[in-house]
Amino acid sequence: MALFGKRRDTTGEAIQDFWTWWNDGGSGQVAMADAPSDQVQLLGPRVQAIASGLAWELAPGSEAAHLLVVTADGDPELRAVARRWLAAAPPSDFVWSYADSRQPAATIDGRCISLEGDDFDLGAVQVGVRRAGSRLDVTVYHPQMEQVPADKRVTLCFLALDTALGEEMTETWIGELAPVTTPPLDGFGLTGLRAVVRDLREEFTDDDGEPQWISLQGNGPRGPVIAGAQVPLAAAWAPQLDQHIVVAVPYRDRDDDELPGVGASAELDRLRHHVSDRLEGQGRVVAYECSGGLCLVHVYADGSTPAVDQIKAAVTGWPDGSVKVNEEADPGWSGVAHLRG
């Protein structure tokens, strides 16, 4: 794993400039713009000044007249930037509210999406769903699917699910997504998919929306492995945590399979909680895996904060040997993909 120093946040000034303009009258200019082209002229350059590749859109708000969305548009490299833009936003009021991902449509009935100049009725979509651990693999059928170029079909699927579920829910709970040209057996509409995803989310999160933990076991290069991971284990759940920090902790108390004994298990658990406490909300322990006398604790943190230094201070004095702390930029959370239940 490559070792990096603390990254400088080069977007902070542009985000501050955006909100200064917005608060000094920009919001009123956008609200009063006579045509979409005027809104594009006002917002487009200012959003791109934050980071090239960010997308934006205006929509009716659920509690405000207007909703301004600035989104990474599926690019994991930009999710943290969009979340930091949102964190700096003013409080919502009766005119404006804000989001860093596309929100689900209020209703599917009568809703259409456009792709390459063609309109697609979302009420005609049928999906097939297969549970894959803590995610859903989904096939998507539309009567016009055969007319869509093969390289655009997946885009149509994502547009349909983003409209029905919202970007965050799609990226968090949907696994494989595949277009099909024949209706799936036992298929159902997007309204039904909303209910299935809602039930899945309720299964794996508590009343406050916090992730649950699952236990895993298997075999690896060092022998038998025991592991734990939060669900959801997805970057879209906490996009500001774009830095992967691996804390490699040796342990001496082992059973016959070289896994932690009772005493080591308790001490490792205390260490993980201590690391979480020292991060003070700038990151969190999301998974761990133990095998062959070594426990790898996976932390994701905000790369613009001194989280690495805080962790190094937290693990000083571990009695069972030297603890190594490595870090790398990983906005897509690929470093824990093998631990997704």
Helix content: 25-40%
Number of strands: 14
Question: H/E order of the elements?
Answer: HHEEHEEEEEHHEHEEEHEEHE
Structural class label: alpha+beta
The separation of the N and C termini measures 23 Å
General shape = globular
- Gyration radius, to the nearest Å? 23 Å
Q: How many domain units?
A: 3
Q: For this structure, what is the CATH homologous superfamily of the largest domain?
A: ACT domain
What is the CATH architecture assignment of the largest domain?
2-Layer Sandwich
In the predicted model, the low-confidence regions spanning at least 5 consecutive residues are 1-8
Mean pLDDT: 93
Beta-strand content bin:
25-35%
Largest β-sheet summary: 6 strands, antiparallel
According to CATH, the fold-level topology of the largest domain is: Alpha-Beta Plaits
Order of the strands making up the biggest sheet: 9-10-12-13-11-14
By CATH reckoning, the class of the largest domain would read Alpha Beta
